[in-house]
Design a protein that fits this description.
Number of strands: 7
Helix content: 25-40%
Radius of gyration: 39 Å
Largest sheet: 7 strands, antiparallel
Shape: globular
Order of helices and strands: HHEEEHEEEEHHHH
Structural class: alpha+beta
Strand content: 15-25%
Number of domains: 1
Strand order of the largest sheet: 1-2-3-7-6-5-4
Amino acid sequence: MGAGGAKRLRRALVCAAAVPAVLITAACSSDSGDSKAKSGAESSPSAGSGGSTQPSASASPTVRAAAYQKLPDACAVLSKGTLSDLVPKGAGSGRKGSSDDPSARASCAWNSLDNNGVKGSQFRWLNVSLLRFDSDATRGSADDQAHAYYGQQVKDAQSVDGAKNSKVVPLSGTGAEASAVRYDLKKKEGLFKQQTVVARVENVVVTLDYNGAGLAGEKTPDADDLTKAAEKALKEAVAAVSSANGAGGQATSPSSKPSKPSKSASGSPSSSPSKSASAGASPSRSAAKES
């Protein structure tokens, strides 16, 4: 073979040897890509297993169950003797307030006018309102809601337009917490002495409004006497709530000492009553309406 033939043979052998190398390189590159793709596919969750990668939902928060489940008849929470003392000429005049759910909201009002002719008249007005709260995971325990509403009732009683000589006195021995708010209200008919006493017993708030006035020249009643009578009536109303639910309602132990009033207790309540309870109007301030 000549020199030219030998050169052509070596070139052919070199090219032939290069072909498998290219194929091997391509094959390696292909395998590497498949491996990465497969590895990625195995590491990523499938569409059907998406829930397994999400954190499990936490359990719903629980709140202490409401101790009291019902309310007594508001017109029957006071004894005949007490009514005779507070509204002597109207002990049988009780008018039940409207409510879409008597187990959540109830009220009753009495009027008394002792007419002494030319000597004038003695007027008395009494209103008892009961509001019960249910525990709710969103709004909180029934007791906490009642505590906030109790604080709001006390504040409202201090904010009546035209009220003079306002005074707040904490009461003991009546429910979990109780207060008396008293003030004077001058109206064209005479000077009215107003007492609003409020108490919380478990998850129920009792508000008792009582006012009196001497009309047409009759003597103005003594505010201390009216306050004592109102406090006595409040104790009876609180006892009636407890009695209607059994000795201690569903609670196995007395309510714990209420925590320091939240902002809602000194402003607008953050916790609202149960739906049925919130449908009615809040207890009116008697002195601003009655004459």
